[in-house]
Amino acid sequence: MIDLIAHNLAPIMFVTVMAMLLIGYPVAFTLAAGGLLFFVIGVELSHISSEIRLFWPLLQSHPERIYGIMYNDTLLAIPFFTFMGLILERSRMAEDLLDTIGQLFGPVRGGLAYAAVLVGALLAATTGVVAASVIAMGLISLPIMMRYNYNRGFATGTIAASGTLAQIVPPSLVLIVMADQLGRSVGDMYVGALLPALAIIGTYCLLVFAVTIVKPHWAPALPPETRTLGGGVISLILLLAASVGIYLATYHTVFADMRSEVRLVWAATTATVFALALSLANRHLKLNILSRLAEQVVIVLIPPLALIFLVLGTIFLGIATPTEGGAMGATGALVLALVKRRLSFSVLKQALDATTKLAAFVMFILIGARVFGLTFYGINGNVWIEELLLALPGGEIGFLLTVTVIVFILGCFLDFFEIAFIMVPLLVPAAETLGIDLIWFGVILGINLQTSFLTPPFGFSLFYLRSIAPMKEWKDEVSGRILPAVKTTEIYKGAIPFIIIQFLMIILVIAFPGLVTHYKQESTVDPNEVEITIPTFGGGSDGGPAFDLPGGLGGSPFGSPPTTAPGDGNGQQNNGLQLPGIGGLPPLGTQPGNTQGETPQEQPAAPAGPDLSQPPSFD
To answer: Hey, what long-range contacts does 115-120 have (CB within 8 A, 24 or more apart)?
Structure first.
């Protein structure tokens, strides 16, 4: 029995820890406690199974592994983006966007649903936080939709699904964490996720359009008396055309001598400033050049769009790293809230408190994952997972479909941070062995996690919406009517069409990798043609040991078994923990660049120096 446990300790540990997580125990403490408990068991069983490589001094590596989390620059972007999102949410930007875009699409059937999708996309691109998006839109747009007789299931499904766009639309926190765990660039992850994210937004709008055709009474247009901004769409179109004209003119004339990226930035900035300045002048100077609708749309939409460019544009153009982009976004959010006179000490304190809690939450999960990873690698758990996944039928497609199902099920119970820090590092070796592009793999996982946020009965987005939707009859203050409660089953039914869209999108991205891998076209250098030669420290050809630190769950902290260096004629061994020798220096008396046995070329006579062939004299 003991032998059986020793040889199957890896699956026993994995199943035990996952069961404790699914039961509901705190993630960070469950991971750390499971890692330490099975470490003790593994040390005691190490003399029975050669697959277990655990010994007590290995515990001393934990301080260095945990400190490695502290100086991870990529993860520093998480508190920046969280703080930016919370400041924007508390400055009531979502309220302004929903009101303005709802007025813009008001005359169209399903206009409020279109507004919810588009505002969800804008909030996702600025806040990156699902809870903030769902709660903000639920509090603002759900009562309005119910007031004007929208189908409750359709309304709640649209709001919940639009809020989950923060999972996949850059600068999503999911994509930042995924890039860190996959060991890839956050910028590449953002570029790769852009087309699938736009496709999801477009498909949501197509679903709304289909509903307005098939069930027009589910999504009526706003009555004329509620359109407080009036008409004026033609004025907005003319302003947009003028801005495009200014962009093209300045791009080809004023900024023609600059690099293409810089030209694009300055030309777009000039056109945007023109539109904003004209709208502000029209409002404050009573010029009456623009309609009230056009004026309001420009004034409300340009600041968040400028903030999106400040964050994503600088990252895509290579001007800033994701961490620097997050810092600029947080600063821009503070400025935006200050300009709107909605930045107070209480708002700032609430945002800082929430950001600190989330950062501590992520940090403790990472520490627990490092403790878990040390033990799991020590009992060859990574090898067990890799062999299990590589044995799946269907090769690359079979692997992706199986992982999609597993992550989807786990996503119904666990937060995406937990899945990213626990599961993703275990899946990476098998994905690399199958030759799967890791950016492609990360985007598939991101869409999958977005789907799990919508799935009954454990979808987090559904929980957020349920917490703020009316649970009993309520009186609408505007219309004076008594409106019915929103049932939980209506929320679940409303999410089903959007879940189907998500699954179709996952299949589409798997079938057409080019939707993601187009990010490679951004590079003008072929990595296969780049040759990097690392000089050796000694006379051998092995290049010395590897000094890289482990990553993911902490990586495998166990070096390779001792091997004989191929270029070492003395048969000395290098176990991956010793410093290389200082051999290979030319013998005294030879000129650099000449080897033994070659006749040196004539060199100018060197000044006479001490005779090094004799021992020194101390007379």
So the answer is: 115/141, 116/141, 116/158, 116/159, 116/162, 117/158, 117/162, 117/201, 117/204, 117/205, 117/208, 118/201, 118/205, 119/94, 119/162, 120/159, 120/161, 120/162, 120/163, 120/165, 120/166
Distance CA(92)–CA(100), nearest Å, equals: 13
Distance CA 429, CA 416 (A): 20
State how far the alpha carbon of 94 is from the alpha carbons of 10, 125, 276, in Å. Answer: 48, 12, 19
Distance CA 378, CA 54 (A): 6
**Cα–Cα dist 181/31, whole Å:** 17
Q: Is the pTM of this model over 0.90?
A: no
Give Cβ neighbours of residue 410 (< 8 Å, ≥ 6 apart).
Answer: 419, 423, 452
pLDDT in tens, 126-161: 766 677 778 878 888 888 888 888 888 999 999 989
Of the pLDDT bands very low, low, confident and very high (cuts 50, 70, 90), residue 201 is: very high
Highest mean pLDDT among 212-216, 221-225, 370-374: 212-216
Return d(Cα 595, Cα 228) in angstroms, integer. 89
Bridge-based pairing of strands 563-564 and 482-483 is unpaired
The pairing of beta strand 573-574 with beta strand 474-475 = unpaired
Q: Tokens in use for 459? A: 């979808």
- Using CA atoms, how far residue 398 sits from 138, 384, 506, 510, 541, in Å, is 38, 18, 14, 11, 40
Beta strands in 195-333 (DSSP E): none
- In a 13 Å sphere around the CA of 393, the CA atoms on its Cβ side amount to 0
- C-alpha count within 13 angstroms, C-beta hemisphere, residue 439: 20
430: which 2 tokens?
């098998």
Closest CA to 30 of 414, 462, 505: 414
Which burial class, exposed, middle or buried, applies to 431 when counting CB atoms under 10 A from its CB (0-12, 13-18, 19+)?
buried
- Residue 369: predicted pLDDT: 85
Statement: residue 483 has pLDDT above 60: yes
Residues 518 and 13 sit within 8 Å (Cβ to Cβ): no
pLDDT tens digits, one per residue of 226-263: 777 767 788 889 999 999 999 999 999 988 888 777 78
